[in-house]
Amino acid sequence: MLGSSMKFTDKSIKALKPKSDRYEAWEDNGKGFGIRVSPTGMKSWIFFYRFEGLNRRMTFGRYPAMTLAEAHTLHAKAREQLIKGIDPGELLTRANIEHRGSPTVAQLVNEYIEKWAKRRKRTWQEDIRMLSKDVIPHLGRRKAKDVKRRDIILIIDEIVERGSPITANRTLRIIKKMFSFAVKRGVLDASPCVEIDPPAKENKRERVLTEDEVKIFWLGLEKAKMSDGTKLALRLLLVTAQRKGEVAQAEWSEIDLKSGWWTIPKEKAKNERIHRVPLSQMAIDILKQAKELSRDSRWVFPSVKNQAITPRSISRAIRNNSKKRPPEHPKHKPPYGEFFKTERFSPHDLRRTATSMMTGSGVDELHVSKVLNHTISGVTSRHYNHYTYDKEKQQALETWDRKLNSILTGKKAKVVNLKRK
Q1: Secondary structure letter of residue 145 according to DSSP
Q2: Helix axes 347-360, 311-320, angle to 10 degrees
Q3: Residue 89, C-beta contacts closer than 8 angstroms, at least 6 positions apart
Q4: Are 77 and 99 in contact (CB under 8 A)?
Q5: Which class is 211-409 in CATH?
Q6: CA-to-CA distance for 30 and 47, rounded, in angstroms?
Q7: Which residues pair with 262 in a beta bridge?
Q8: Cα 118 to chain center, whole Å?
């Protein structure tokens, strides 16, 4: 071990000046603890020791990024490992290799989307959007294993501070799911998201439009500032009572206008089961108009890029034409026009409205749940009851068709509910 010996203090270390060649200084009675100074002035903490009869040395880190106290702590830990018969330098080398091979947050995002979200979530594109907007810019280059709870909290706080508390809740849910996925995949030993509570309280929505509001919505679409395809998608959502994602992503290969059925494949259904939706006359009329607009596209409601419109675009279309904007968007420009002169509502509220009005027209609740493709709990229902309820679903939506027509025309509808025999 060559080099001068000195008492280590911050003052003495700062006084070490670079020379033409690299040199080392050692702490008095430091038991192999020293510092290396390069010709450029870079200073690195080092430890000189013997293991299995051979001279070895290891580097802890650079000064002043690593303080004298921190370097002393690592030196003491290395000496403890030596006493136990462990080579601290070899241990550090393996740790460095493992660190270099561990994924960054950006890589984890990609793995989560490809291996989990795309396979299980119809709204996986929304996960990409939210993670790309608020997580990757802050943590993308960080190693996933180095992310701390505080890092997540700061991201969520920033979203709240820009006036989007509900978005903060949803972003936190996605982050939690992603890090839970990482633990299950063996990427991490523990999630940094434990004990982080949602920043905002969300009230469960129970909004059901009145008959007058349904008419205002339907007629308001004529002058609303949105594409003709989106207008038709919103009407189909109300007429069929299906989910906005299923409507937005509908393909012509799923629809048979002659027989009057729309078959939603299990890949698109929330409960991962094929769902047959009977098409009422009003639904067929809407789809015929959509066919003229979509031309040769595979999508019933294509976007300008000949992709399917997104569920988010349907929500945005209503928001941009509503009387009131959501409170979490105070910085947005004024609405394009208040064509829906009602209290604010969402696409899901249209589905809930159709559900309520079907039930109110005498349709059996079980039959309505089949229209909605809700899963009925219980072993018998899951494994033994394979009855399709096609006739009951057809009658339910025909009843809703007559009810909706009566709302729009003012003529009283004759409502007849079919009872299973």
Answers
A1: G
A2: 90
A3: 47, 49, 51, 56, 57, 58
A4: no
A5: mainly alpha
A6: 9
A7: 255, 277
A8: 11
Do the beta carbons of residue 395 and residue 418 sit within 8 Å?
Answer: yes
Work out the number of other CB atoms within 10 angstroms of the CB of residue 264.
23
> Which residues, 6+ apart, have CB-to-CB distance to 306 below 8 Å?
297, 299
Structure tokens given for 277: 């939706």
Digit-coded pLDDT (tens) for 294-351? 989 999 999 988 899 999 899 999 988 886 544 444 444 444 445 666 778 889 999 9
* 354's tokens: 């159709």
d(CA 250, CA 257) in angstroms, rounded, equals 14
Would you say 287 and 236 are in contact if contact means Cβ atoms under 8 Å apart? yes
What's the rounded Cα separation, in Å, for the pair 116 and 111?
8
Could you tell me which CATH number the domain at 105-184 has?
A: 1.10.150.130
Cα 393 to the chain's mean position, in Å?
Answer: 33
DSSP string computed for 184-206: HTTS-SS-TTTT---SS--PPP-
Q: What is the spatial distance between Cα 238 and Cα 347, in angstroms, rounded to a whole number?
A: 8
Report, as an integer, the average pLDDT of 115-120: 88
**DSSP-derived secondary structure letter, 153:** H
Task: Report which DSSP code applies to 269.
Answer: S
Which residues, 6 or more positions from 67, have their beta carbon under 8 angstroms from its beta carbon? Answer: none
E strand spans, 240-303 = 255-256, 261-264, 275-278
Handedness of CA 246, 248, 249, 250 (dihedral sign): positive
CB neighbour class for 373 (10 Å; exposed up to 12, middle 13-18, buried from 19): buried
CA 217 to chain centre: 30
Q: Which CATH number is associated with domain 4-101?
A: 3.30.160.390
Identify whether the C-beta of residue 22 lies closer than 8 Å to the C-beta of residue 39. yes
**pLDDT tens for each residue of 211-249:** 999 999 999 998 899 999 999 999 999 999 999 999 999
Q: Kindly report whether the global pTM for this prediction surpasses the value 0.70.
A: no
Residue 380 token pair: 């018998």
Range list for CATH 1.10.150.130 in the chain:
105-184
Lookup result for tokens 């439009």: 209
Radius of gyration of the chain from its Cα atoms, rounded to whole angstroms = 32
* 3 state DSSP class of 48: strand
pLDDT band (50, 70, 90) for residue 182 = very high
| Region(s) of the chain under CATH 3.30.160.390 | 4-101
